Amino acid sequence: MSQQRHGSTPGGADGVPAFPDLPEATIARLPEYLRALHHLAETGAETVSSEGLAAAAGVNSAKLRKDLSHLGSYGTRGVGYDVALLIDQIEYILGLDKNRAVCLVGVGNLGHALAGYAGFASRGFRVVALFDADPKKVGEEINGLAVRHIDDLERVAVEESIAIGVIATPPGTAQAVADALVAAGVTSILNFAPGVLSVPSNVDVRKVDLAIELQILSFHEHRKASLTALPGGRAPAVANGDQEAVGS
Ligand SMILES: NC(=O)c1ccc[n+]([C@@H]2O[C@H](COP(=O)([O-])OP(=O)(O)OC[C@H]3O[C@@H](n4cnc5c(N)ncnc54)[C@H](O)[C@@H]3O)[C@@H](O)[C@H]2O)c1
């Protein structure tokens, strides 16, 4: 995969591009840009303006230009960004060229839905193993994968070079599952169980909690209602209409 860049990558020494130190908020938006860019590529677009890409990704264009400048990507005046090149750059930065192996622990209501989702592969991830503690679930096949017992985690994680573990167990067992993942050498965890996990400093944890997202939307509903209740029914002040990704 090409790693050619517009401009230079910040911080490079001796002609070797350094890995850019990106703000977390920028990292969270890169997958949105990538999704929009893939859609543009499918429709045959070769270039896109910052305004066009920003609209497709649901962010404002100044923020997008700042985000992409962190990658050393400034586009060409009057032409915009090269769609294929920008896809390559973002996939390289996100490490999506590695096709990382993912395992899922907890094949209940949520885990079952996640395991059955075919969209991970097209985004650069291979779900290679499913684990559960319930003997009744072990052996069940979902999307061509048989559920294994959690006791097999360590062996399978090494065999399959699992990089990312997804936790979809009840909150009471999530820490024990995280400990087992860490002991098996997994250094990135996506946690769906509510609560905070304790992990070593070399392990990255992202958590997804749809209830928190609903609570944030509830705040915005509350704010809009209180503003329209003001004398004169003043329209609510919306900062920029950004659509933040869940979990960002
Ligand atoms: N993040 C979100 O937005 C969101 C949404 C829904 C559910 N959840 C959370 O996801 C988790 C799963 O929810 P659910 O409805 O699928 O629950 P569930 O009870 O249907 O499934 C949990 C599964 O985990 C398995 N399990 C329990 N302990 C285990 C262990 N130590 N090792 C391996 N497997 C184990 C169980 O056998 C079961 O199959 C819960 O923590 C729930 O709160 C989060």
Automatic annotation (TrEMBL):
Q: Where in the cell is it found?
A: Cytoplasm
Q: Which domain of life is it from?
A: Bacteria
Question: Quick check: keyword Transmembrane helix in the entry?
Answer: no
Q: Which residues does the annotation say bind NAD(+)? A: G106, V107, G108, N109, L110, G111
List the molecular function annotations (GO) for this entry: DNA binding; DNA-binding transcription factor activity
Residue ranges of domain CoA-binding in the record: 95-196
Which InterPro entries does the protein's record reference? CoA-bd, NAD(P)-bd_dom_sf, Rex_actinobacterial-type, Rex_DNA-bd_C_dom, Tscrpt_rep_Rex, WH-like_DNA-bd_sf, WH_DNA-bd_sf
- Matching SUPFAM superfamilies, A to Z? NAD(P)-binding Rossmann-fold domains, Winged helix' DNA-binding domain
* GO CC, any one term: cytoplasm
Question: Record keywords: Glycoprotein included?
Answer: no
Q: What does this protein do?
A: Modulates transcription in response to changes in cellular NADH/NAD(+) redox state.
- Write the protein's name: Redox-sensing transcriptional repressor Rex
Species: Actinoplanes italicus
Q: Which gene encodes it?
A: rex
